[in-house]
Design a protein that fits this description.
The structure holds two protein chains of two kinds. By secondary structure, chain A is of the alpha+beta class. Chain A contains five helices and 16 strands. In chain A, a hairpin with a 2-residue loop joins strand 3 and strand 4. In chain B, about 25% of the residues lie in helices and about 40% in strands. The chains are: A alpha+beta, B alpha+beta. Chain B: This is Regulatory protein YycH domain-containing protein.
Chain lengths: ~280, ~425
C-alpha cells in the first residue's frame, strides 16, 4: 500500500515535469528564427506581409565628403535672366517673369532644358530630376556628387507648381566646396541593408517598400561643413496611410540613421523626409 | 485484476522515459541552448565582416620606379591603390621560381631601384602561402619568406620576391600577367612623394630626400563600450557566471574558466586573454588565419585597420589604423590591435576601444614634413647614436582636438624606432 502511494506520487511528479519540459521546448522553437542567411529573413519579411522587390546583392563604392552652402551660388546667380531672385540665407528663391507651362508627360524634358541653361539656373548641370521626390505640387532636382544623388534639403532645386500645373518659380540650395574626406570604400549590399532595417524593427508589418536608392545623406556638421555619407534610402509606405517615410541606412555600417540626438555628438542632425 | 496492478508501474516508466527523451532533445539541439538569440531583433554589429582577410592584410606601402629611376611612394585620395592593384594581381599563376642572389647588399639595393617597376611592401616577412590567400592567386612555388614584391612594367613575365633578411632575391616566372593592366592602375591620378632606398646600419630603409607635403585628417571618435565586448566575448560559457571586479582605473571580467578581460579606463584599452583557443601556429598563414578569426570573433570595427607587422620571436602581430596609406601611431602604446600567441592553446589580445569611422573636415588641409636627411641630422645633433636607430617611418600622430569634443586629429610626422619601440621624433629630441 505504501509502495503504491510512492509510485503514485512519482507518477504525478514526472507527468508535471514532462508537461513543463514540453512547454519550454515548444516555446524555444517558436521565435527561434534568427536564421543565418539573409534569404530566411527575406522570407520572414514576406510572412509579415511586407511588399518589396527582390533586392540586389551588389556592393558599391562611396565616399565621405564635406561641403557647405557657401557663396558659390551667390556668385554664379549674377548671370541669371528672366527672373526675380533674392537670397534667403544661402537659399536662392526665384520667381520666373513668365510662368512655364508644363504639359503632361513632357514635364521632365521641359524642365531638363531649363536646368541645363546657365542663363536660367545656376550650376544646373550638377542637378538631376528626381521622380521619386517630386509630387503634384513641386518638382525636385537633386544635386549629384561622385555620380550619386544627395538626398538633402541643402542640395536641391524645388520648382513650385500652381494649380494650372505651371512653374511659377523655384528655390535652390547648392553644396559648394566639396572635398572628399577619405578614399572610396565599399558599401554593403541593398539586400543586407534591407534585412537590417527589418531587424531593427523599422519596417512595420504590411508595409510596402516602394523604392530603394543609394544616395548621400548628411550625417553631421563639423567646423562649419556638412559631412555626407552614402546611405541606402528606402521609401516605406505604411499600411492604411498615404504617406511615405524615407528610412536611411548607413551604407558602410548598416546602422539605421535616425533624427534627433541619438548620435553621440550633439550636432548630429540627419534628415528624414516625409513625402505625401 | 492483473492489468489494474500493472498500470501504475507502466505509466511511471513511460513518464520517466518521456522526460528523459525531452531533456535529451533540449541538450543536444544547439538551437535551444542559451547561446542562441531568441529575439528577432538582434543588434547586428557584425559590420566587421565587411573587412575581409584580403583587406586587412593588404601590403602597407606601394612604390613605383619610373624609366629614369625616380622612385615615388604612391597614395591616392580617391581610391585605395593597394586594393586596386591587388585585384589586378589576382589570377596570377606561376610554377617556376629561381633564387637569383643572396647576401649581396649592393645587388639587393640595385634590385630595389630597378627602373620601370612597382614595389609592394610589407613591414615583416610573409610567406608564399599567405601571399596566395591574401592576393587570391595561384602561385605554386616552394613556400618561402619575403617582405617585398616587385612587378616589372616592361617585363610582365616575371615577378621578384625580395627579402630584406639576408638580401634574398627570387625570380618567379609568371603566366597570365598583362602589363597594361598594371599601367592602367598607375595611370590614375596619384599623390606621389619622392623616396629613395638606402642602407642604414645594414638595414634597408626608405628615405625622403625632400620635405613632403601630406594631407591631414580629422575623425569623429567612435568609442565602443566595454559592455559590448563583455557581452560578446565573456558570455560564451553559459554555465558559468562572469565575475566582474571594479577597480579605480580598470574593470576585470573573469568567467572562472578560460577567458579573462581587463579594461583600462585611463588608456581606453582592453586586454583579453583566452586560454582555450586552438592555435594552429605551425605556419605563418595559419597564425594569420587564426589572428583574423579572433579579430572577427571579438568584433571590433576593422574599417581602416590593417596588418602592420609580425614578430616571429615573440609571436606578436600588430595592427594599426591607417589613414591616407600611412599608419597611425599613438592610438595606444601598441597600435590599434596587438595579438600575442602565448602557447598552443592560448593568446592575449590588446585592443583600443577607440576607432575612427566618420571623417570630418580638418582645420588645415595639409602639413609639410621635413626630409629624412634633416631628421637624421637632428637626431644626431641630439646625441642619438646612429646604431640605436632601428628604423624611421612617416606616420600620423593621433591627438584629441582641443576645442571639439570627440574629434581626433591626425597630423603627419616622423616616427623613429629605438629599443623596439616606435616614438615620435620630437619625444626623442626631448621636445615633447
Amino acid at each position: 500500500m505504501n509502495f503504491k502511494r510512492i509510485q503514485m506520487i512519482f507518477l504525478a511528479i514526472f507527468i508535471a515535469m514532462d508537461v513543463l519540459l514540453f512547454l519550454s521546448y515548444n516555446r524555444n522553437s517558436v521565435g527561434d528564427s534568427t536564421a543565418s542567411g539573409n534569404n530566411n529573413i527575406l522570407e520572414e519579411m514576406r510572412k509579415d506581409q511586407i511588399t518589396f522587390s527582390k533586392p540586389t546583392t551588389d556592393k558599391h563604392e562611396g565616399y565621405y565628403f564635406s561641403g557647405n552652402n557657401g557663396d558659390a551660388l551667390r556668385q554664379s546667380a549674377t548671370n541669371l535672366q528672366q527672373q526675380d531672385l533674392h537670397f534667403s540665407g544661402s537659399e536662392l528663391v526665384s520667381e520666373f517673369k513668365k510662368p512655364v507651362k508644363l504639359t503632361d508627360g513632357s514635364a521632365k524634358q521641359i524642365l531638363d532644358k531649363i536646368v541645363a541653361n546657365p542663363g536660367l539656373i545656376a550650376k544646373g548641370k550638377q542637378y538631376e530630376y528626381s521622380k521619386q521626390l517630386s509630387n503634384n505640387n513641386e518638382i525636385i532636382y537633386v544635386q549629384r556628387v561622385a555620380k550619386k544623388p544627395i538626398y538633402s534639403h541643402f542640395c536641391q532645386i524645388r520648382f513650385d507648381l500652381d494649380s494650372q500645373h505651371r512653374v511659377i518659380g523655384y528655390s535652390q540650395n547648392y553644396l559648394g566646396g566639396v572635398k572628399f574626406l577619405k578614399e572610396a570604400s565599399k558599401t554593403i549590399s541593398e539586400e543586407r541593408a534591407l534585412t537590417w532595417l527589418y531587424q531593427y524593427n523599422e519596417i512595420p508589418n504590411g508595409a510596402k517598400v516602394s523604392w530603394v536608392h543609394l544616395a548621400y545623406t548628411r550625417l553631421l556638421t563639423a567646423r562649419g561643413q556638412y559631412v555626407f555619407l552614402p546611405t541606402w534610402v528606402f521609401a516605406v509606405k505604411i499600411n492604411n496611410s498615404s504617406s511615405v517615410i524615407l528610412k536611411r541606412v548607413n551604407a558602410y555600417t548598416g546602422e539605421v540613421i535616425k533624427t534627433g540626438d541619438n548620435n553621440q555628438t550633439s550636432n548630429a542632425n540627419s534628415e528624414i523626409f516625409t513625402l505625401t | 485484476m492483473k492489468l489494474r496492478k500493472l498500470w501504475l508501474p507502466v505509466s511511471l516508466v513511460a513518464a520517466v522515459l518521456i522526460s528523459l527523451g525531452l531533456s535529451g532533445m533540449m541538450w543536444t539541439n544547439p538551437a535551444h541552448s542559451n547561446l542562441s538569440n531568441r529575439t528577432k531583433v538582434t543588434k547586428n554589429s557584425d559590420s566587421t565582416s565587411n573587412t575581409t582577410f584580403q583587406d586587412i592584410y593588404l601590403p602597407s606601402q606601394l612604390l613605383s620606379t619610373d624609366r629614369l629611376g625616380r622612385q615615388e611612394l604612391l597614395t591616392n585620395n580617391r581610391v585605395n591603390v593597394a586594393s586596386d592593384l591587388r585585384d589586378r594581381m589576382s589570377h596570377f599563376t606561376a610554377e617556376k621560381a629561381k633564387s637569383v642572389s643572396k647576401g649581396n647588399s649592393k645587388r639587393y639595393l640595385a634590385q630595389l631601384k630597378r627602373k620601370e617597376s612597382v614595389l609592394l611592401n610589407y613591414n615583416s616577412a610573409i610567406s608564399v602561402n599567405f601571399f596566395r590567400k591574401a592576393f587570391n592567386n595561384q602561385l605554386k612555388i616552394p613556400n618561402q619568406k619575403f617582405n617585398r614584391m616587385q612587378l616589372l612594367l616592361n617585363d610582365p613575365k616575371h615577378l621578384y620576391l625580395l627579402n630584406d633578411q639576408g638580401y634574398r632575391i627570387v625570380r618567379v616566372t609568371l603566366k597570365n600577367n598583362r602589363a597594361d593592366k598594371l599601367r592602367h592602375v598607375l595611370a590614375d591620378r596619384m599623390v606621389k612623394h619622392r623616396v629613395a632606398f638606402e642602407l642604414f646600419n645594414g638595414k634597408v630603409i626608405l628615405t625622403y630626400p625632400k620635405a613632403v607635403k601630406l594631407r591631414t585628417y580629422s575623425y569623429q571618435l567612435t568609442q565602443q563600450t566595454q559592455d559590448y565586448y563583455a557581452n560578446r566575448i565573456m558570455t560564451t560559457n553559459s554555465n558559468s557566471n562572469v565575475q566582474i571586479k571594479r577597480h579605480q582605473n580598470s574593470t576585470d571580467y573573469d568567467d572562472h574558466g578560460f577567458r579573462h578581460m581587463s579594461v583600462d579606463k585611463t588608456t581606453d584599452t582592453v586586454t583579453f586573454t583566452d586560454y582555450n583557443s586552438q592555435v594552429k601556429s605551425n605556419s605563418f598563414l595559419q597564425t594569420m588565419n587564426h589572428v583574423y578569426d579572433q579579430l572577427v570573433m571579438v568584433g571590433m570595427p576593422l574599417d581602416s585597420v590593417r596588418f602592420y607587422s609580425y614578430d616571429s620571436g615573440s609571436n606578436t602581430a600588430v595592427f594599426r589604423t591607417y589613414a591616407g596609406g600611412l599608419p597611425i601611431f599613438d592610438q595606444s602604446n601598441f597600435g590599434a590591435i596587438q595579438m600575442k600567441v602565448l602557447d598552443q592553446s592560448s593568446y592575449r589580445m590588446k585592443f583600443s576601444l577607440d576607432s575612427l569611422q566618420v571623417p570630418v573636415p580638418p582645420v588645415q588641409t595639409s602639413a609639410t614634413i621635413m626630409s629624412s636627411t634633416d631628421l637624421l641630422k637632428q637626431l644626431k645633433n641630439a646625441g642619438i647614436k646612429e646604431n640605436k636607430i632601428q628604423g624611421i617611418e612617416l606616420g600620423y600622430e593621433w591627438s584629441r582636438d582641443k576645442s571639439l569634443a570627440n574629434v581626433v586629429n591626425l597630423v603627419p610626422t616622423w616616427y623613429v624606432k629605438t629599443n623596439n619601440q616606435w616614438q615620435n621624433y620630437r619625444k626623442l629630441l626631448g621636445q615633447q
